[in-house]
Amino acid sequence: MAGGCLTLLTTVLAFGAANVHASTESFPSDAWTVLSQAVGGRLSEAKPIALPCFSYYDGQLNQRNDSACAAVEAGYTSPTYRVANFGDYMMSHWETCQSTSEQCILDSSDPSNPQAWQQYNCSQGSIAPHYIDVRSAFDVQAAYTFSALTKTPLVIKNSGHDYKGRSSQKGALALWMHNLQDMSWSKNFVPWGCPTSNSYAAMTAGAGVGWQTAYEYADANNFTIIGGYHQTVGVSGGWAMGGGHSILTPVYGLGVDRVLQFKIVTPDGIYRIANECQNTDLFWALRGGGGGTFGVVLESTHRVEPNPIPIQVASLNFTANSTNTHGWLSIVVNSSYKWGTEGWGGHIGPANLINVTPLLSLDEAKESLQEASDYVTAQGGSVVIETLPSWYAFFAKYVISAQSAVGQEYLLGSRLMPSALFQTNEGKQQILDALINMLPSANPYIVVGTPFLYNQTAGATSINPVWYDSLWHLSFHTLFTFNSTLDEKKAAYQTGNDIVATLRAIAPDSGAYMNEGLVYEPDYEHSFWGSNYNQLLSIKNKYDPYGLLDCWTCVGWSGQSDPKYSCYLNLSD
Ligand SMILES: Cc1cc2nc3c(=O)[nH]c(=O)nc-3n(C[C@H](O)[C@H](O)[C@H](O)COP(=O)(O)OP(=O)(O)OC[C@H]3O[C@@H](n4cnc5c(N)ncnc54)[C@H](O)[C@@H]3O)c2cc1C
Ligand SMILES: *[C@@H]1O[C@H](CO)[C@@H](O)[C@H](O)[C@H]1NC(C)=O
Ligand SMILES: *[C@@H]1O[C@H](CO)[C@@H](O)[C@H](O)[C@H]1NC(C)=O
Ligand SMILES: *[C@@H]1O[C@H](CO)[C@@H](O)[C@H](O)[C@H]1NC(C)=O
Ligand SMILES: *[C@@H]1O[C@H](CO)[C@@H](O)[C@H](O)[C@H]1NC(C)=O
Ligand SMILES: *[C@@H]1O[C@H](CO)[C@@H](O)[C@H](O)[C@H]1NC(C)=O
Ligand SMILES: *[C@@H]1O[C@H](CO)[C@@H](O)[C@H](O)[C@H]1NC(C)=O
Ligand SMILES: *[C@@H]1O[C@H](CO)[C@@H](O)[C@H](O)[C@H]1NC(C)=O
Ligand SMILES: *[C@@H]1O[C@H](CO)[C@@H](O)[C@H](O)[C@H]1NC(C)=O
Known about the structure:
By secondary structure, the protein is of the alpha+beta class. It has three domains: 1-179, no CATH class; 183-307 and 532-554, Uridine Diphospho-n-acetylenolpyruvylglucosamine Reductase, domain 3, CATH 3.30.465; 311-528, Vanillyl-alcohol Oxidase, Chain A, domain 3 (3-Layer(aba) Sandwich), CATH 3.40.462. The chain has 19 helices and 20 strands. The chain has helices at 3-18, 31-38, 66-75, 79-83, 115-118, 137-150, 211-220, 238-242, 249-252, 255-258, 280-286, 324-341, 362-368, 370-378, 391-400, 425-438, 486-506, 524-529, 533-543, and strands at residues 43-45, 56-57, 60-61, 130-133, 154-157, 173-176, 183-189, 200-206, 223-224, 259-265, 271-275, 296-303, 305-306, 311-317, 345-349, 352-357, 382-388, 409-418, 444-448, 470-480. It has a seven-stranded antiparallel beta sheet. A five-stranded antiparallel beta sheet has the order 7-8-12-10-11. The chain has a four-stranded mixed beta sheet with strand order 1-4-6-5, covered by helices on one side. Strand 2 (56-57) and strand 3 (60-61) form a beta hairpin. It binds flavin-adenine dinucleotide (FAD) and 2-acetamido-2-deoxy-beta-D-glucopyranose (8 copies).
């Protein structure tokens, strides 16, 4: 990028930022045309995906189209369908304006339910009305300039998996990262500007690449990349910048532990490379400070492991009834510290467990889980403990085939559970009581995905440091539906807040995963970043001097009273 061009851009940004009080109505009406030309015509208007099902759109008659509507219904709960459409999000409620019920969604439990389009008219909701299909750093620079000059807020959307609605925003100009799909790898990757002695086996993925695509590429090239438990979560976006857990994290670390380099356009308009040798403050901030905050990432590079990595897999489940979940959870809580030392990672529920470890032999794995297996067998359940040759073999067999449906109005809550609690009888009892107390209103979803055994480099990441001393990322969900009333939505969020309050009471000095915490997390700065928050805020102010990027409970967040957050709920009303 030529220096002259940069200077011009910086001047334009400064000019735009100086006119902070300019009315949005006063910006030239042809501004959108100019922007469209600047980005090679890749500026589009976005419409809700379910529009063909509806008879009215934003107050106007709309011609319902049965065949197009049937296609939307067929894809409605499929992540691969949703990820390919700009206007679709993995949780439907982030397409709606929750506070006003302006929406254009279907019934996720039965997408053909006509109530969804008979009782509601189609509204744009919180889907950004314009988006740029980003292909280069220049597209991002054009968007920053446009935003600074017109005061149009920006939002970055990759896969649309965000649980807090940070990739959709009513009235914003969106940057859609999905089509940056390049991948490459090297046995001797040297971060840009580092000495050649800093060499790593590494894979680079464009911002739009999702995990299944990355796993297939890695397997085809005979190496393993450590990533998330869902086909379409992005490799380079919110996952990599906010934490990034894998069920192999206990041994191999989090995404933020393994990332080597980001290519990013910071909101001051400059295209930068951040790694251990340059822009090191920015690199640290990107390793945990969160997506949508410090700039727009175009690609990321991650350390990889040579194959083969054989893993022991345990899949246990039984039919829950009113009496048999307590005994199971008691065994789980009691065994968790020992399981942690054996490298197990995975997901555990009130009547199931799917865990893996690369550290044990098959016999050791069976012995480790003997008590749990006996319990499941006694409930008439199923126990499979087997060796698979690789992470990819596991993913193909256990994850793709059992892909969780999306499209539901899921609300998460969570807390990182400190290892020390699992080492005393009192602590174990407190955890067990908390799990049992939440059962009537929400099922615990225990993510054994903290870097418990991983040998971290102290201070290398900016996530809440409590991650490294925790054994569980303990989560759960509550939900509402396409036709919930405002009070029902508030109640669903409030139930989550109340459950997390009980977890916070037994782990008051801990925190929560910024990507999978409460939408309405109190004291979110401490919960998500702990002692790292102040440093993150000063780095945010350095690289985003005009405040062009802002997102809900992100570092430097403008707060709920900012009109761009009018679609969020005020739970205390
Ligand atoms: C079904 C499901 C499964 C999940 N599984 C896991 C898991 O196994 N492990 C785990 O750790 N998390 C998991 N998550 C949570 C996931 O990490 C977060 O939802 C994360 O925010 C997704 O990031 P994304 O970029 O894919 O999504 P998006 O919703 O597109 O973006 C999320 C945030 O990142 C920002 N962002 C996206 N792309 C960029 C970019 N290129 N540059 C700058 N900012 C960007 C957005 O503005 C937004 O703030 C899961 C979520 C769901 C819904
Ligand atoms: C209805 O949708 C189908 C498929 O999406 C399209 O081919 C067709 O032209 C549409 N019909 C009308 C009347 O718009
Ligand atoms: C939909 O919009 C039409 C036209 O404005 C209006 O008559 C109708 O009452 C609306 N229906 C609903 C459910 O809001
Ligand atoms: C951490 O380091 C110790 C000491 O070098 C080593 O024994 C152990 O295997 C390492 N743990 C992991 C998970 O790599
Ligand atoms: C994969 O790499 C390993 C070494 O890491 C090697 O032993 C093995 O033969 C390779 N397999 C294939 C199919 O190339
Ligand atoms: C256990 O899970 C398998 C695979 O999902 C399923 O087929 C089986 O019905 C489940 N068994 C019980 C007892 O829930
Ligand atoms: C808890 O686990 C220990 C071994 O880790 C075992 O000795 C003890 O009996 C277990 N207690 C209960 C109540 O299961
Ligand atoms: C729960 O299931 C177990 C195992 O099948 C059984 O022994 C027990 O009686 C059941 N309890 C209830 C309340 O159904
Ligand atoms: C929502 O729809 C469901 C199923 O169609 C129905 O049972 C329920 O009563 C509706 N709720 C409201 C608040 O309208």
